[in-house]
Amino acid sequence: MNLLRPLLLASNSPRRKELLTGLGLTFDVHVKEVEEDYPAELKREHVAEFLAAHKAEQYFEDLEDHILLTADTIVCLGDKVLNKPANYQEAYDMLRSLSGTSHEVITGVCILTRDVKDVFYDTTKVYFKDLSHEEIDYYITNYKPYDKAGAYGIQEWIGKIGIERIEGSYFNVVGLPVQKLYKQLVELGFLVVD
Predict the structure, then answer these.
(1) What is the pLDDT of residues 52-89, one digit of tens each?
(2) What is the spatial distance between Cα 122 and Cα 49, in angstroms, rounded to a whole number?
(3) C-alpha 26: how far from its chain's center?
(4) Residue 100 belongs to a domain with what CATH number?
(5) Which of 169, 159, 157, 173 is CA-nearest to residue 76?
(6) Degrees (nearest 5) of the Cα angle 161, 165, 166?
(7) With a cut of 70, which residues of the chain have pLDDT below it?
């Protein structure tokens, strides 16, 4: 597999780094602090796309011959977007609201070069069992999911004991829809399988 230009990942997420490495891609990481606000009237699926594209635009002046990759994952319960919890109580309230129901995880992705901007998203439906107070408390106390949208990581303890099933890509819930990303890189002519 051969990337025809150097790849830059604009994310500190260890999960996204691991997924890209698992695709067999080599890349550098370049991260800037970017505000993650979005217009309130956006539809849910467009929030993740907007945030990924907004992040990418902050790097445009720095791009030379690079392919820049940005992503943003949101958790949606009905029409409500669950962001990263600020504290224990917010994390607890989020997990309590997800308990015994289904929600959607949407990851927006932006591939940006000097002459190409490709933005797309993927959606996965996640079903949680009824979580007890003790299970939620144990998870938050031991795993401190304050850097995770919806207050959980599917690959962590709570995902192992709490998620009954998913519809769609597991990797999308982890933080990057790698199958769609691979397809887009090939279709854009940036990735050649040889």
Answers:
(1) 999 999 999 989 999 999 999 999 999 899 989 999 99
(2) 10
(3) 19
(4) 3.90.950.10
(5) 173
(6) 125
(7) none
pTM reported for the whole predicted model: 0.93
141 CA to centre of own chain: 23
What is the DSSP track for 82-104?
A: E---SSHHHHHHHHHHHTTSEEE
Mapped onto helix, strand or coil, the DSSP state of residue 55 is: helix
Q: Could you give the residue numbers annotated as active site?
A: 72
Kind plus residue range of the DSSP H or E element containing 2: strand 2-3
Total count of domains within the chain: 1
* 155: containing domain: 2-192
**Identity of the amino acid at 12:** N
Question: Which letter does DSSP use for residue 145 in this model?
Answer: -
Of 50, 15, 56, 17, nearest in space to 34 by CA:
56
pLDDT given at position 36: 78
- Look up residue 40 and give its amino acid: A
What are the residues facing 103 on neighbouring strands?
126
